[in-house]
Design goal:
mainly alpha, single chain, 5% strand
Amino acid sequence: MAEKALHGDMDPELAALLGTAGSGSGPLPDFSDIFGDKNQNDFSDISSASGGEVDLTTSGFPQVTKRLEEKGHNFYNDPNYYKTALSNEGDIAQRVHSILQKYLTAKDPKDRSVFRQQFMSPFWEFLLNVGRKSAGRLPPPKKYLLRFGILHPSFISAETRDFFSKVVDDNTLDQPVYYIDEWLHGVGTSKMRPSSTDEVRVVRGSAQTKLQALLEKAQGKLDGSRSILKAKDRERYEIEKIIRDRMNGIFERIPLPELNDLSDCFSESQKASINEVQNLLKQLLKNDHELQLSIKDFSGAEADVHHLQEKLEAEGGSVTVDIGALDTEFDTIRQMAKMTVGRQGNHFPVLMAEYFHSTPNEVGLRENVISMLARIESIDKEAFCRIYKNRLNRIAPFVLLIPTYGDMGFCWEPFDRFNRATSRGRIVVPMYPRNLYLAILTAVADLRWQVAKEKASFYWMEEGLTGHYYQWFQSNKLKGDIKEYFIRDYIMWMTKEAEGIQKLDKDVRGTFWRHMPFTQEVKERLKNRSFVYQELYQRDQNRAMSDGY
């Protein structure tokens, strides 16, 4: 009876669409228990979504050697895929199925448009139910629904199914680039802090709330000091290693040609090594002083955390985070999905053949995104760097991949509000854009702007990157959103100016060259392209000779 109530006398076209994936024919799956509450603990756990500690010693992204698996999995050929994706989600899943059936069988384009619009809200509500389970275990159909938007395999072509079946499932490169299911898993298991755009409510008294806020701030300071301490320790190790190598070379004895029992004088390379060791020893002493300060900062931060934890326990325990933490994070993700698409874009939340036109290299898979982030960093060397205590730290941002048909990536947090020193920023990238590289460039440009603006604080209209750009913006009497102008110019900077094609205003080019420098390799190439770049290159040399002013 339940099956008949769900699909009754189904239209043959719908039957074909909802039939066995990969075969193009066959009976509909049994929906008799699709809306039940069967236990699903037998499914394997998804990959960990922990962001891990920031390693300040890394210099770039790893090279991607494997974009796809040689052999794909068979989940998209499972005749029960759609049934499993919808099962155990309550009445909202039944509503999604009902509206989807009407949408797929509608003949009149106007009716189809109406049902398409009606489908959006219930589907996101249904997806929220799925997202709530991501802190635990998800069956593959639900995981791939969250991750890629694949509600039913027959909605995409056999070729596309084969492609997605070969996508690397786990984060083998250990980079902070995550799919939605992994991200929600991290938030749900407290391995990641929820987005600050939607604060998680607390349900205790004001005294505990204040203590919890202080504890989070102290924990952020502790995380930052720990990262810096590790970086300083690693720096000392590298200096000591070089000193040992140079000393071994210095102690090598070269016998005199005619007096084998005597050694010759130091060679020129050995003399150079002696001078280098003298400078390295000075660096080692400086590092030791900085290491002492770092240890002191870490010990102080650790003591503050312990003290606040004790006070919080004395007040009756830690603040209980509202069970809506995942809900609010999911609501944030829904807003992000809208922003990647824009008001005039295609907001349909399911992957379907009629909307999916990306080539394999243009799909926002983790490996493709990491490759393009590395490409950006090979041009803009400080794209993911922040200065803290006169040290330039490379901190790759969290990247959340959202399965939308949008074209715009963006930054929604330049860094953690509790750890401005070493925390990761957060950017969003749509998975099915027309041009993936431009979508990622948009996100990096937004990150660049927000980090520079936060760094300059109250003086963002006067100092640094944002200050110089704002003054140019004002002097040209431009109207509109200044950040949109900056993002447009940054894309021009990375795609045209980096190739020696002059497209930017002279003042903007000078500002970018100074505050967002190309890598030395790009600079060397550009200086021979035209007088404009040669002049900018010479300014670098002049600044270096005057101690970087």
